[in-house]
Specification:
Elements lengths: L4 E7 L6 H17 L8 E6 L6 H11 L3 E6 L5 H12 L5 E4 L10 H10 L4 E6 L7 H16 L8 E8 H7 L9 H8 L3 E6 L13 H15 L2 H29 L7 H34 L6 E5 L4
Parallel strand pairs: 1-2, 1-4, 2-3, 5-7
Antiparallel strand pairs: 3-8, 4-6, 5-6
Length: about 325
């Protein structure tokens, strides 16, 4: 008998795209069921992340019309990563494997077939990886690829050109449940689980409708969260920088004493002020980086819930 697949799709103000997303997902799931690849008890689970439009009403209607569609309604907006985790932790109760993807139809749903095949070949995690960024603007391509390379440089074990389009088995999700951190960066957490993994390449499409929920400001914030959640190298760089500046200061002090003894005059005001401003800027930057880590520790020690589910719509059979 085929295993049960749940596809978890976080939604925030997605009323424009949900009708098309549900239509395409129904065709795909029906095809997989008819091929005997997945159980007829498989579902598409939409997670409403506190949307203020008609997203939840559409999800409710889809559920009433077709048992294929399930819904999870969060009590308030918690952000993409928390909404995704809420869906994964709900779906694991019913499914043998779970695929996570975005609602905007940029992730190629035809890659689901290859992911399921990899699962049956023994993989617990299958990452959807973009085959190219030819459609991206130069700025988008440069910043995105730079982010992955920088994360690797900082010591984070993430999959290059992979976002949150992935398949995870039940035992991989049970492993994910053991990670209790509040500051979520699932792209970094999932590789930490271990187990056998593989990748599936796909071509990323343009957003079908609506606006991106990740403008540049949010992307930069997300990237910084990822770095500070999985690496202490920024703090170590501050230590290295402090050591270098200390050595240079001693050298400059010795130079000043020698010049004074020899009767010369030390170059004055401009170089002194430049040094003060430079050191002051470095100190403020260093305090800011350290403060970011302290802030994360503060959030973690509170142990606040990462999400609160208001209601769940799901027909198992």
């Amino acid at each position: 008998m085929a295993d049960i697949l749940y596809v978890v799709i976080p939604c925030y103000k997605e009323e424009e795209v949900l009708p098309e997303t549900s239509s395409r997902m129904k065709k795909k799931m029906d095809a997989l069921i008819s091929q005997g690849k997945i159980s007829e008890n498989s579902r598409v689970m939409f997670v409403n992340d506190g949307s203020t439009d008609s997203t939840w009403e559409i999800i409710t209607r889809l559920h009433c019309e077709d048992k294929l569609f399930s819904g999870v309604n969060l009590s308030r907006n918690r952000g993409h990563q928390n909404a995704l985790l809420a869906g994964l932790m709900t779906a694991v109760k019913y499914a043998d494997m779970v695929i996570s993807m975005d609602a905007d139809l940029q992730d190629d749903i035809n890659a689901i077939d290859a992911m399921v095949d990899k699962y049956y070949q023994g993989c617990d995690v299958v990452y959807g990886v973009r085959s190219s960024r030819a459609k991206d603007t130069f700025f988008k391509k440069f910043t995105a690829e730079g982010f992955y390379k920088f994360m690797k440089l900082m010591g984070a074990d993430i999959v290059f050109n992979h976002a949150d389009y992935r398949l995870m088995s039940k035992r991989a999700l049970e492993g994910l449940a053991q990670f209790g951190e509040v500051n979520l960066f699932l792209r970094g957490i999932v590789p930490e689980i271990g187990y056998r993994s593989d990748t599936v390449e796909y071509e990323r499409a343009e957003r079908f409708a609506g606006e991106s929920k990740y403008p540049l400001k949010k992307m930069l914030s997300f990237a910084f969260d990822g770095i500070t959640s999985f690496s202490i190298k920024p703090i170590r760089l501050i230590i290295d920088l402090g050591f270098v500046i200390s050595v240079l200061s001693v050298i400059f002090l010795i130079y000043s004493i020698i010049v004074k003894i020899m009767g010369g005059s030390v170059a004055g005001w401009s170089s002194l002020m430049a040094s003060i401003w430079l050191i002051g800027g470095i100190q403020l930057l260093s305090i800011g980086v350290i403060g970011e880590y302290i802030g994360k520790i503060y959030k973690e020690t509170k142990h606040r819930p990462r999400f609160i589910i208001e209601s769940v719509l799901n027909k198992e059979k």
